[in-house]
Design brief:
This protein is mainly α. The protein contains 11 helices and 2 strands; from the N terminus they run H-E-H-E-H-H-H-H-H-H-H-H-H. This is Insecticidal toxin complex protein.
Length: 234
């Protein structure tokens, strides 16, 4: 509960108009100006990976403003931007790839046809999980970017392991505890690629144990998902 309250406080304290704008016309209509703030971007900027989008990401990370990103799609594309920087630096950390991969999958449950098989509680869980992890991950992502130290091999593994541990044992624990049993079963059904979800989850990374157990999720992320993303996901 304390962690969820912390996320809520961040959202309230940083509530300003900064966000993704549909167009300059929409920006002007709401603010009276056609000039974007340093923390803002147009939807087209994000989709086309423009300098405006990249600069906004750098600004928001530098100023620790994760609440600027309101949707799973925005967070997904932020992770893609961040991963590109890590690759250019020769950094071998995999967690940003993992976060992007999961964000891609979470976004799909809102899209046809998966949205037809996913209830509102599970969709809310996906959004809350995405937001919670993003809020807490921002600070270590910022620290790594500012460090300028290239993490390879064991150093990269150690950093990834720390992120996965915090993600499963601290950031997401209350999110899992807050969801009802029926929805948890649906989430596990999804993670295991059962039924229609076999088209959503690759066979190599389907969850094979009880998803309500924290150590099971940690083991899966650390040894299964990380290995998959390292070898197969760019």
């Amino acid at each position: 509960m304390r962690q969820l309250l912390f996320v809520g406080i961040i959202s309230i304290c940083t509530h300003v108009q900064a966000k993704e704008w549909a167009s300059l016309r929409a920006l002007e209509k709401e603010t009276g100006s056609r000039e974007l703030k340093a923390s803002d971007w147009l939807k087209s900027d994000r989709k086309q990976n423009t300098v405006v989008w990249q600069s906004a990401n750098a600004y928001n990370l530098n100023h620790n403003q994760p609440s600027e990103y309101k949707t799973i799609m925005e967070r997904r594309d932020f992770y893609a931007w961040y991963n590109t920087i890590m690759k250019k630096r020769g950094n071998d950390v995999i967690w940003p790839k993992m976060a992007h991969f999961i964000s891609v999958k979470l976004r799909l449950i809102y899209a046809f046809p998966f949205c037809l098989f996913t209830n509102k509680a599970v969709k809310n869980f996906a959004f809350q999980g995405s937001e919670t992890v993003f809020m807490y991950a921002f600070e270590p992502l910022k620290a790594l970017l500012e460090n300028h130290t290239t993490l390879n091999a064991e150093a990269a593994l150690k950093w990834d392991d720390a992120m996965v541990y915090k993600e499963q044992y601290h950031w997401l624990e209350n999110v899992y505890q807050s969801i009802d049993q029926e929805s948890l079963m649906a989430i596990e059904h999804m993670a295991k690629g059962q039924g229609f979800y076999k088209f959503l989850v690759p066979k190599d990374i389907r969850f094979k144990s009880d998803i309500t157990v924290t150590k099971n999720r940690y083991y899966y992320a650390r040894y299964v998902l990380r290995d998959y993303c390292k070898k197969h996901y760019q």
